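[agent] plan:
  1. take the single chain provided in the ticket
  2. run structure prediction with default settings
  3. attach structure tokens to the ticket
  4. add a short note for the reviewer (M.T.)
[agent] executing step 1
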Amino acid sequence: MTDDGITRLLAMLDDLDADVDATIDLADEIAATGGPELLPRLETELGRAVEERNGYARELLGGVVAGIGGTGSLPVLVRASAVDLGDDQDGLAAEIVDLVQADPKKAEGLLRPLTEDDDLAVAHRADWALRFLP
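[agent] step 2 finished; step 3 output follows
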């Protein structure tokens, strides 16, 4: 997958008339085939989705970041998840839990420092994620 796929996905996320299933399929394809070189752009776009209070884009982009970045992406995902957008975050929460359980040692090493974050929402979300360590 290339940057072109991300550009198409972003256009679909911004288009209120875009087919939801096609958007999800493209996000899944990028997560399955994308390389780590895509992470900086995806993380930036995830941050933009949070700033714009777009829970739908946060869910899909969070899944793509998790799929490509693995457990190493936990800090980015926890920070994105810590912002209350009024949605249920089921998908993003499941991604975080899966990554914590996939590599517990690495997850703990990444999450433990976040429990001391100056942003209490981030600290609480990191503490929540640590509860899923086996």
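[agent] step 4 note for reviewer: Residues 3-130 form one domain.
[agent] ticket updated
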